[in-house]
Every structure is written in structure tokens, then in C-alpha cells.
Design goal:
The protein is α/β, with parallel strands linked by helices. The protein has 23 helices and 21 strands.
């Protein structure tokens, strides 16, 4: 079989889904990807791992670019370590490359070398651990290639691997020529292609600060994983989830990168950069160290993560570990949100979905995802990307293909949609608007308490996106309802909901029933849109918990997956 024929037959059966081409770095070989490959294959992603020659940046990149060009259909290049430098160049040359994924890797700029970046930031232990060896080059002249000292390999490259395993990796490491690490990059593919980045926060080869700098510079959608440079071996599931997120992302034609002045500048690419906050990172670390099945709660418009506090406590009492991340730039309190509504403005469905997907990708196990309102839409988007172990969508916002437009829903969205200038603003609800939209099924006294406690301004952009979803084939408000890896899903409707009336949830349910997985729906009598926060929240939460417990167990299995 010819190489090109092998590549043509290696892609995913769905021609629109990219094939992932994995490129290893220095001091390793293709086996560093073995567990990531297994995860990607389980997710139905077409994947190829190539042996990187490690001879020179120019020739290595030319080889990978030729391999990518030989693949039928779109390609995502994923590079680890020096492999990142290679895909940076190859990605600028192969026309079918649609994105670049950096895994603790060098995302170089034009005229920059791997050693340049290493020297700019403290924290790398690589230089002191390198050992030279002479070898004849293609012309027979002596040249230098570099190894990591075997005694230092565990400490520098793979501190979170067992020492026995690290010793084997040290003995099997493939050397790289000194010239490859010194060679200046002739181009930077991330300036014209969207990028994703996995930062290894315990890396001693490429310092986390250097990784953050490169991720920020290329406008990458970034996740942080507590791991050494050998992150593909020690956290393969988390790495694979970031790759799956990239494969599922809508193909865009624009990206943001940092100018020399540190300002994000458009290079005719997309602006959906996501940053996981320190608080969210702490939640992820807590979940990953717990050995328990994570449950991620996703709020909707006009609320903050604190709206889930009682739910999180209930699920933790049941043995799960809860996460309550926010939308990008969410303030900590309702008071802050009301004082500074501008920080909430301009958040699109795609940007917020990528943010939550990045958090899910940082977890060591697929989470259960519970979402309300637009959070219910986001939960379904994540499930459609194969990122959820189970999903509960409560009074979810509609997505493309959901046709009912009840008058009450139009009345709720009307104040925001009536002024096109609101598209990029954050809009508040007056008490009367909140009473109609959220609190129509509770007493006046409770409605006032809920408004004072929970109501905040919200980005109007998702409302505009939702309103136009069935008119825009490229909308971000769309869900893959047929992904076989979606997992079990429960949709919950409030009988008296004005914002997302039962007709919307029923229509969503009918579309989700196309999926081979379990799909169920429950309608809660007498409940409005505030059903997750009002005095009857516990009934809804118990319904969601009972569904989750049918398909997952709180304790992770030996394979690191939610038990059942």
C-alpha cells in the first residue's frame, strides 16, 4: 500500500470531520501518543501518528506537510513539544489543515527558535539536562544530536510517571539534532489557522509561563492540566478531550493573535479564545484528585453560578464532586454584575460552549452536565460533542431545528431584540420582566426575593443567535443530536414556563430522540422558569439526580470513567 493511499483511507467516515495527525517531539517517539490514540478512536475520530524525523525544522515540517496534504479531507495537526514547532510550519503549507493543537508544545513565531523561547522564560530544566553525541550527517560530516541525561529524564521530562516507566522511556528516547532546536521558524501557521493549546502546569521542559505566553499569542482555546511534559502519557483522556473539542468546533476563517504591543489583533480568523479562571482551575483540580464522577452545572442568561449552590451541595451529599463554572468574565456576585454589566456583554453561544468544553477537557473523566435555560442548550452542545457522561437539560433554550416560537418566549426576548444595538450589550431585566420571564409561578414575595438575590444583566448576543438559528445554517446555536457518543439525556420542562415553554422542550426532545442513546423527558407541573432556584428546586434537583444515578455511579471506575 502506498503512503498516500494509506492516508486517503485513514480519515473519519464523515468527510466534514477532520482527521487528526499527531506529531511527537524530541526525546520521544509515536508511542507517547498511544493512549491518546485509543481515546480518539473510542470517540470515533480518525487519527494517524507519524514518526517525526527530528533532523531539522525545515525538513521535518516538509515531511509532515506532505503527509497532511495526502489525506483526503480536512486535517487537524496536533504537536507535542518540538512537534509543535513542526506543525506551526507544516500548518502554513498544507492547504487542508484547518487547525493546530499544541500539547505542551512550541508555538513559534516567524524568526523564532525553540531555544529562543526556552531562554526567554525561567523554569525550564531542559538545557542543563541535555547531553550531546556526535553522528555523521547525510554528507558524512560530523554533526551533533542531543539526548536528555538518563538520570535526569524522570525529573525533567516525566516526573509524574512511575520511575520504572520513566526509565524505559529514557532508554528508548529518540535524539534530536542541535540544529533543529536552533533553527528559526520560517512561518507561523497559527496566524491563519485556529489553535488550541494544552498547558502542562508542572512541565520542566517548556515552562508553563512560556506555554501560556505562546497560547495567548496565538489566540488559542486553552486548557490547563496538572501534568509533566509527558502529559500525553499521564493525562491522555484530558488531552484527547481537547482534541475532540477541536475536531467538533465549527470551522472558522478568522483568529486572534497578540501584536508586539500585547493587543489582540485580527488576522482574518475567529475571536473565541477562552480562559479558565483560577477559581475554575481549583474546582477542576479538586475534581481530578477526588476519584469521583464530576458533575458540571451550567447556568443560563440572567443568572450566575451561585444559582447552583444548593444543587451542588445535594449532588455532593450523594457522592459526586460538583463544579459550578461561570460564563467567561462572570463576576463573583450579583452586586458586581449589576455594577459592571459591561463585562457580561458580547458573549456568543460558541464562545461560551468552547469555554465549558475547555473545562470539561481539563477533567480526568467525562462529567455529567446539568444546564438550565441557555445552559440547557450549552449542555446539549457539549453532549453532542461527546463531552458528557450524562446530560440533564432543564427548560433549555432552542437550537437550530426547534421550530416552535411561543408568544410568551417572544415577549421575554422582545426587550433585548427590539433594539439591534443591544446585540453586543448586556441587558438587564426589570422586576416586572423578571416576574413574567422567571417567577410567574411563585408568590409576589418570593418573586421579589429571587429577583434581589439572583437576577443580573445578561449578554443579549445569544438571544439574537437563538432568534435567527433557523435562518442561519452557520449558526452557533446548533446541536449534534445524532452523535452516538452523546450519552443518556434527560430534558425537563416547567409546565408554566414563559421563557422556554414546554413546546420548545418537546420539540428538542423529538430531535434528540434520533440519538441511539437513552433520551427521556419530564414535565414538572405548575413550574415556571425559576424552577431551579425557587422554593421547589429540590423536586427538580431530585428528579435530575435520580436520572444521573441510573447511568453513573459517584465513584469512578478503575478505568477512570464514571461507573454505572
Amino acid at each position: 500500500m502506498s503512503t498516500s493511499g494509506h492516508f486517503r483511507n485513514a480519515g473519519h467516515r464523515n468527510g466534514s470531520t477532520p482527521t487528526v495527525l499527531l506529531v511527537h517531539g524530541a526525546f520521544a517517539d509515536v508511542s507517547i501518543w498511544v493512549d491518546v490514540i485509543a481515546e480518539l478512536q473510542a470517540a470515533g475520530i480518525g487519527v494517524i501518528a507519524l514518526a517525526n524525523p527530528l533532523r531539522s525544522l525545515e525538513s521535518d515540517a516538509a515531511y509532515i506537510a506532505r503527509a497532511a496534504a495526502a489525506i483526503d479531507g480536512p486535517v487537524l495537526l496536533a504537536g507535542h513539544s518540538y512537534g509543535g514547532a513542526v506543525i506551526t510550519v507544516a500548518g502554513a503549507r498544507a492547504g487542508n489543515v484547518v487547525g493546530l493543537i499544541y500539547v505542551a508544545a512550541f508555538a513559534l513565531d516567524e524568526g523564532e527558535s525553540a531555544l529562543d523561547i526556552t531562554g526567554l522564560f525561567p523554569g525550564s530544566q531542559l538545557t542543563g539536562a541535555l547531553r550531546p553525541a556526535a553522528f555523521p550527517d547525510t554528507s558524512g560530516d560530523p554533526a551533533i544530536e542531543l539526548y536528555i541525561d538518563r538520570e535526569a529524564f524522570h525529573r525533567v521530562f516525566a516526573a509524574d510517571l512511575p520511575r520504572r516507566v520513566a526509565a524505559v522511556a529514557a532508554a528508548a528516547q529518540r535524539p534530536i539534532t542541535a540544529v533543529a532546536l536552533e533553527e528559526k521558524s520560517p512561518s507561523a501557521g497559527w496566524k491563519t489557522k485556529p489553535a488550541w493549546y494544552v498547558i502542562a502546569t508542572e512541565d520542566q521542559v517548556i515552562s508553563p509561563e512560556a506555554q501560556q505566553f505562546m497560547a495567548d499569542r496565538c489566540g488559542a482555546r486553552t486548557v490547563e492540566i496538572r501534568a509533566s511534559h509527558a502529559v500525553t502519557l499521564t493525562q491522555p483522556a484530558a488531552v484527547a478531550r481537547q482534541i475532540v473539542t477541536a475536531a467538533a468546533a465549527p470551522r472558522t476563517t478568522s483568529v486572534l493573535h497578540l501584536s508586539p504591543e500585547g493587543i489582540f489583533m485580527s488576522a482574518d480568523k475567529s475571536s473565541n479564545t477562552t480562559t479558565i479562571t483560577e477559581h475554575e482551575t481549583m474546582q477542576v483540580d479538586r475534581a481530578n484528585s477526588s476519584g469521583l464522577t464530576p458533575v458540571m452545572f451550567v447556568h443560563g442568561l440572567f443568572l450566575l453560578p451561585t444559582s447552583w449552590d444548593r444543587w451542588a451541595e445535594l449532588f455532593e451529599v450523594a457522592g459526586y464532586v460538583a463544579l459550578t463554572p461561570g460564563w467567561p468574565d462572570d463576576p463573583d456576585t450579583a452586586e458586581e454584575a449589576r455594577e459592571h454589566p459591561e463585562v457580561l456583554a458580547g458573549k456568543s453561544v460558541g464562545q461560551v460552549a468552547d469555554h465549558f468544553a475547555a473545562i470539561a477537557g481539563s477533567l480526568s473523566a467525562r462529567p455529567v452536565v446539568v444546564g438550565h435555560s441557555f445552559g440547557g442548550l450549552l449542555a446539549q452542545i457539549m453532549a453532542g460533542r461527546g463531552l458528557a457522561a450524562a446530560t440533564v437539560a432543564i427548560d433549555p433554550a432552542p437550537f437550530r431545528g426547534v421550530l416552535p416560537l411561543p408568544i410568551s418566549a417572544l415577549r421575554v426576548a422582545g426587550p433585548a431584540l427590539s433594539n439591534p444595538a443591544n446585540r453586543h450589550r448586556a441587558v438587564p431585566l426589570t422586576y416586572d420582566q423578571f416576574r413574567y420571564a422567571f417567577a410567574n409561578a411563585v408568590s409576589e414575595d418570593e418573586a421579589k426575593r429571587l429577583y434581589e438575590t439572583y437576577a443580573v444583566p445578561a449578554a443579549a448576543l445569544p438571544l439574537f443567535q437563538g432568534a435567527a438559528a433557523n435562518l442561519n445554517p452557520w449558526t452557533e446555536a446548533k446541536v449534534d443530536t445524532e452523535n452516538a457518543d452523546r450519552g443518556p439525556m434527560l430534558l425537563i420542562a416547567g409546565e408554566k414556563d414563559h421563557t422556554a415553554p414546554p413546546a420548545i422542550t418537546h420539540a428538542s426532545f423529538k430531535l434528540q430522540q434520533r440519538n441511539p442513546g437513552v433520551t427521556e423527558m419530564v414535565e414538572m407541573p405548575g413550574r415556571g422558569h425559576a424552577l431551579t432556584i425557587d422554593n421547589g428546586w429540590r423536586e427538580v434537583a431530585d428528579t435530575a439526580l435520580a436520572f444521573v444515578q441510573r447511568f453513573t455511579s459517584p465513584q469512578l471506575s478503575e478505568t477512570g470513567r464514571p461507573g454505572s
